[in-house]
Amino acid sequence: MGLTEQLADYFGFEEHDTDLRTEVVAGLTTFLTMSYIVVVNPSILVAAIDVPSRTTAETIQMLAVVTLISAAVATLIMAFYANRPFGQAPGLGLNAFFAFTVVLGLGVPWQTALAAVVVEGILFIALTAAGAREYVIKLFPEPVKFAVGAGIGLFLAIIGLQAMHVVAIDSATFVQFNPIFASDPIAIISVIGLFVTFALYARGVRGSIIIGILLTTVASYLADFLGYSATNQEVIPESGINLLYEPASLTGSGTLTYSLAGYDITPLVGAFLTGLQNIDGLSFALIVFTFFFVDFFDTAGTLTGVSQIAGFLDKDGNLPDIDKPLMADAVGTTVGGILGTSTVTTYIESSTGVEEGGRTGMTALVVGLLFLASLALVPLAAAVPLHASHIALVVVAVLMLQNITDIDWSDITNAVPAGMTMLVMPFTFSIAYGIAAGIISYPLVKAATGDLDDVRMGHWALAGAFVFYFFVRTSGLLAGQL
């Protein structure tokens, strides 16, 4: 039996109606759309992680290596254990909370913040093994489950359009059409690349998303060579803060050149052990709770939304054997914290690979191997400009909106939680907040109409947990304990 046959047998290509070529293309697509994290994660964490024996540049390189290793380990576990086409890496939003809220804002040592990530991961492992995480996810109201995919689509769209310079920040309206669109080469090249990708996809061209990304990348390098340059700022997506950077060219200026010291990650590995010393029990528990809460529902929403595209959900909107990808996610978080990075989570960009036909762990295997390969090469994330890779997010966002047909909009008790889920996600830059809005509104509107037969105690418990979370997160209670 050849290698191709062995892979087909192990991952179940026939069962999932796929083949090796499709899975490899899907893996490449997912990697290209999420590989920006290799550059973005270090740029966020370096603000909080200070290693005395390393320069800032060396610390950035160390964090890039840790990002690559943790992403590879978590995604390979997803491939071989869960056999699902989901990529994993340190999560945006959670890394910003780690750096700017916990460490810089609250004055918590970065080693202690890493300890909170490790504890959160261990809790996830225990709860997943006991089936508790699967039970909670099954409690999601049906309209919320069916709205998650479309909500993530809207969320992806705004992230992608930001990176493409189609939308820009406005102090009065929050977002606006790029006022210098006609003179911004990033915006022009991105939009042309987007419509070329749509055209290829509409024609049924296999690998259309990858082709679109690569054509846009080539066009960007060509324009850069001819002397065109970026003229306005880009926003790092889902950071939760106005963290801006100005690329020096259309191809970006964040290329990392690894030094030998950059490969020595020993100051980061195991640093969480130092962080476990002399901690305040209540404040540490609140930090763990915040990491835990956001990661739990971000992961749940991502798995549900991407699985909806792939056709993995059953008639009740549940993902069969969800405990396996949840366990891969939990182990990834724990390994990431031990290595020295913030919470590892399942990426919504996995939807791009699924849209290319990825259906098995072979897709995740390709993603994991590409992360490992990037350790030896200049990171591919630096070679593919952010605006080029994020074309895929807009394409997938449009396709994900098809999921709203599964929702019974004629029933107001379904329309309210579904609509809140979809709207809050993009406007708060958080999958978890969107799910929270849907879950809190569901029992309330059901109770208001007297339709309590569909409401269980678990729905009220989840709604109460979210209310408590928002109180802790926004009342200043966390800061007051530190």
How would you describe the overall organization of this protein?
The chain crosses the membrane at residues 24-48, 60-82, 113-132, 144-168, 180-202, 209-230, 250-272, 284-306, 326-348, 360-378, 422-445, 457-479. It is a multi-pass membrane protein. Belongs to the nucleobase:cation symporter-2 (NCS2) (TC 2.A.40) family. Azg-like subfamily. The chain has 482 residues and is mainly alpha-helical. It has one domain. It has helices at residues 3-11, 20-34, 37-45, 56-82, 94-103, 110-129, 132-138, 142-163, 185-202, 208-225, 260-263, 271-275, 281-310, 323-339, 350-355, 361-376, 380-383, 386-389, 391-400, 412-428, 431-448, 457-474, 477-480, and strands spanning 88-90, 167-170, 174-177, 234-235, 244-245, 344-346. It has a two-stranded antiparallel sheet. A hairpin with a 3-residue loop joins strand 2 (167-170) and strand 3 (174-177). Helix 8 (142-163) crosses helix 13 (281-310) and helix 8 packs antiparallel against helix 19 (391-400). The chain is globular.
